[in-house]
Design brief:
By secondary structure, this protein is an alpha/beta fold. Helix content is about 30%, strand content about 25%. The longest helix is centred in the last third of the chain and has 21 residues. The radius of gyration is 17 Å and the shape is globular.
């Protein structure tokens, strides 16, 4: 008799139709995760029984953490993340906006950055200050895609460790205890991700200003190697993070 495969449940908090799990979804489906996506931008309700989920991921989005009047679901999301991370102590990943929400939930502040970070930029691992085993496969400096004008500051909780920084943003990656990570950048992008993001006219206008009118093709050609490296590092991180939390 074959051993029964234990399926794991993931809940995804999605803030925009064009921002999705990307390469993370491929990896988790390969490892037999059952994925439940909550489209908050359509006012879908977060299930009350969040304790049944083994992993939670909060994705990026065009809004900011303080926009609770425009997006009232942010209030509920913050409460749910607080319960999942602090009370239940379950594995959590916050990417971009999700990273900032996690920071806020943990008592930090989210403030307007002195300098926006948009495009492929370098991030450095703070191995001399704190070594995180889930980032052991990362080089000291690596390139990721950034898109943010706000950032997390004042991470004073003693249970938080700062793992990576950039020239403009100190808290690019931080973790709470060993089960919750805030990741300000995007390393989950696939070849068609930015093309999908450019369905947003404002986004396309900004991207074209940085990369030129044929921005999508130019990015995919010029940064093909960077995208492949980002995906490889993303999978390496997931492998160690999920294994460390006994999810694979």
């Amino acid at each position: 008799m074959k051993n029964k495969i234990s399926l794991k449940n993931l809940i995804v908090l999605q803030h925009d139709q064009n921002e999705d799990l990307e390469i993370i979804e491929e990896y988790l489906l390969f490892h037999k995760f059952l994925i439940k996506k909550i489209r908050l931008y359509l006012n879908e309700e977060i299930p009350k029984n969040i304790d049944k989920y083994d992993l939670m991921i909060s994705l990026g989005g065009p809004m900011d953490t303080w926009m609770e009047k425009e997006h009232p679901w942010l209030i509920k999301e913050k409460k749910v993340i607080k319960k999942f991370v602090i009370t239940l102590e379950k594995p959590f990943l916050g990417i971009c906006l999700g990273c900032q929400i996690l920071g806020e939930v943990l008592g930090a502040k989210v403030v307007k950055s002195k300098k926006k970070e948009i495009g492929f930029l370098d991030v450095s691992i703070n191995k001399d200050k704190y070594f995180d085993k889930n980032f052991i496969d990362f080089p000291n400096i690596f390139k990721v895609f950034q898109w943010h004008s706000y950032e997390v500051v004042s991470l004073l909780n003693p249970k938080i460790k700062i793992i990576a920084s950039s020239k403009s943003t100190k808290n690019q990656v931080f973790k709470y205890k060993n089960h919750a990570y805030g990741i300000q950048f995007h390393f989950e992008l696939k070849e068609n991700t930015i093309k999908n993001w450019c369905k947003n006219k404002e986004f396309k206008k900004i991207i074209d200003k940085i990369f030129g009118e044929n921005s999508v093709n130019l990015i995919n050609e010029k940064y093909k190697d960077e995208l492949m490296t980002m995906n490889r590092l993303c999978k390496k991180f997931l492998e160690k993070f999920l294994s460390d939390n006994k999810l694979i």
